[in-house]
């Protein structure tokens, strides 16, 4: 199966959308069965008691995009490692074909990549980092000292987190300690790769063979690729305010879309959320601004974002 739906899949999915988001068994011809199976496998159609329901394609695009970025990153890292991995074989071949004469010492093995603490010590301008740890507070406590040292040295620190990180009071406190020293924090409720980039020259990503270990990347093209994707994700992310009284980043994002004139239903479709979830966030915004109606809320939000 290719990454993108074929013409038959697209046509059948659009037929489901035109039919109110549903496909009934009587709407399907026998030749449609393989196409329906492919759409179900992709997650674009969901089986229901009365037929099939169309799903939001944005989730599929995010998932496949993340898989492709992950695959591309691994290929680039493999391309960088391959010459070093083949170096002992190349040396043996060269020895075999070397003219007879005094023996020469073999070329030294590639140096072991420096550890993260050494990279932090050598960082002079900026550290870019994405975090998707299952226990964010624990990791943030462990790295607080090195992050504060980096900031006090005058380096910029930009970190990207999952929205769930702000739901943890301990993690929120750890982020606040960094924010007070000038760190810039954002949250993104979309798939992204975990990476550290030091001075846009050296990157560390999880090693393919062991996610708990890091692979150091120094190839300029590969590092540039990782930086470009970090900047893309950063632009799509929501600034994180670790203040306990600050609204949730999803609430902030919904408020921005409402301020642009989108309806509750349009916001739900844009963010891939249920209308009930969006309504709950809108209720919090109305309480925050004392808005009696959605029109008044939009007026307050437009004034805040354009003031």
Can you walk me through this structure?
With 307 residues, the protein is an alpha+beta fold. The protein folds into 3 domains: 7-55, no CATH class; 64-80 and 113-239, Endonuclease Chain A (Endonuclease, Chain A), CATH 3.30.870; 249-306, Orthogonal Bundle (Arc Repressor Mutant, subunit A), CATH 1.10.10. The protein has 11 helices and 10 strands. The strands form 2 sheets. A 7-stranded mixed sheet has the order 9-8-7-4-5-6-10, with helices on both faces. A 3-stranded antiparallel sheet has the order 1-3-2. Helix 8 (249-259) crosses helix 11 (294-306). The two termini are 50 Å apart.
Report the end-to-end length measured between terminal Cα atoms: 50 Å
Q: Write the CATH fold name of the largest domain.
A: Endonuclease, Chain A
Count of individual helical segments: 11
Q: Tell me the helix content.
A: 40-55%
Q: What is the CATH-assigned architecture of the largest domain?
A: 2-Layer Sandwich
Net shape: flat
Strand fraction: 5-15%
CATH fourth-tier homologous superfamily of the largest domain: Endonuclease Chain A
**H/E element sequence:** HEHEEHHEHEHEEEEHEHHHH
How many beta strands in the DSSP annotation?
10
Overall SS class = alpha+beta
Strand order within the widest sheet?
9-8-7-4-5-6-10
Number of domains: 3
Name the CATH class of the largest domain.
Answer: Alpha Beta
What is the oligomeric state here?
single chain
Q: What does the main sheet amount to? A: 7 strands, mixed
The whole-number mean of residue pLDDT values reads: 79
Radius of gyration: 25 Å
